[in-house]
């Protein structure tokens, strides 16, 4: 039986380690707070009540898709679609197509950015593969007008960032919930990580730090992440009750191969993010 994502895919490499998954959802947590459809995340009340629990629930669904055979992945996607249809029926209105695309675009964007911050630049082929995988998820869900390629996604992503983000009372409340559930020091670390991975437009609107001071620490962590001490530091980023679930993110074996250095330099895929004219707070 065929896999939904090839065993040696860069997508499995990215989503098979807790480091990158946590950075992906740090970025998504920031952008979700600005999205003009964030009220949908508040409709059931589950997100503000338990943002960390919802994080791991979302991760579980994503990994069920990315590490399953085709039949299992399609079953998981159909389950997600059914959950959304039920929420739409309860509220009496559909979730906008652009909001569905925004979520897929976040998964593509932060999969790329998280890996590049923690590991190395991705090749153009790898970026194409990431885009294709998540667009297949969207196609199965029936989301229209998905980009056919990575360059097309880059253009659509820029349009969405310009049109679909705004600070709202939900933004303030969601960040208050992040602080409440993480505590002060972890909350500040979250904001610094978010500043490293989000686009300039998101960083400016949320007044996030640039996160530049994390670069030496992340470089050191990259060289020592197999050391027990580094694992202890990583586990300290989230409250104790989530440490077992963090470790579980590393449980899935991932096969991967690295391109040679020359190929990586020639084929790397920049996210085309321009530096803001004024630095974020």
Structure overview:
The chain is an all-alpha fold and 281 residues long. The chain has one domain (10-248). Helix content is 68%, strand content 0%. The chain has helices at 10-15, 18-34, 39-43, 46-49, 51-66, 70-91, 97-118, 124-141, 150-163, 169-182, 184-197, 200-206, 214-224, 228-235, 243-248, 261-267. It starts with 9 loop residues before the first helix and ends in a 14-residue tail after the last helix. Residues 253-267 and 272-281 have low confidence and may be disordered.
Give the helix/strand layout.
Blueprint lengths: L9 H6 L2 H17 L4 H5 L2 H4 L1 H16 L3 H22 L5 H22 L5 H18 L8 H14 L5 H14 L1 H14 L2 H7 L7 H11 L3 H8 L7 H6 L12 H7 L14
Short description:
With 281 residues, this protein is an all-alpha fold.
| Number of β-strand runs | 0
Mean pLDDT: 84
Strand content: under 5%
Please give the count of helices.
Answer: 16
Region (Disordered): 252-281
Domain ER-bound oxygenase mpaB/mpaB'/Rubber oxygenase catalytic: 38-214
InterPro entries: MPAB/Lcp_cat_dom
Protein name: ER-bound oxygenase mpaB/mpaB'/Rubber oxygenase catalytic domain-containing protein
């Amino acid at each position: 039986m065929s896999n939904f994502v090839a065993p040696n895919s860069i997508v499995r490499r990215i989503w098979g380690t807790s480091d990158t998954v946590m950075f992906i959802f740090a970025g998504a947590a920031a952008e979700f707070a600005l999205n003009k459809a964030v009220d949908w995340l508040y409709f059931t009340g589950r997100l503000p009540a338990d943002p960390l629990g919802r994080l791991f629930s979302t991760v579980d669904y994503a990994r069920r898709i990315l590490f399953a055979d085709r039949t299992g992945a399609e079953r998981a996607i159909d389950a997600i679609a059914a959950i959304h249809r039920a929420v739409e029926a309860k509220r009496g209105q559909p979730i906008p197509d652009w909001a569905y695309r925004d979520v897929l675009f976040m998964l593509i964007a932060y999969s790329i950015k998280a890996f590049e911050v923690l590991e190395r630049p991705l090749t153009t082929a790898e970026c194409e593969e990431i885009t294709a995988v998540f667009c297949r998820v969207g196609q199965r869900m029936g989301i229209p007008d998905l980009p056919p390629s990575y360059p097309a996604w880059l253009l659509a992503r820029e349009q969405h960032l310009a049109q679909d983000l705004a600070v709202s009372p939900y933004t303030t409340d969601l960040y208050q919930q992040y602080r409440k559930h993480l505590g002060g020091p972890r909350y500040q670390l979250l904001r610094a990580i978010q500043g490293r991975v989000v686009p300039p437009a998101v960083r400016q609107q949320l007044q996030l730090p640039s996160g530049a001071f994390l670069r030496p620490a992340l470089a050191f962590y990259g060289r020592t992440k197999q050391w027990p001490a580094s694992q202890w530091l990583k586990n300290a980023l989230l409250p104790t009750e989530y440490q077992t679930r963090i470790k579980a993110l590393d449980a899935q074996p991932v096969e991967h191969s690295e391109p040679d250095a020359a190929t990586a330099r020639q084929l790397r895929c920049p996210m085309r993010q321009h530096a803001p004219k004024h630095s974020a707070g």
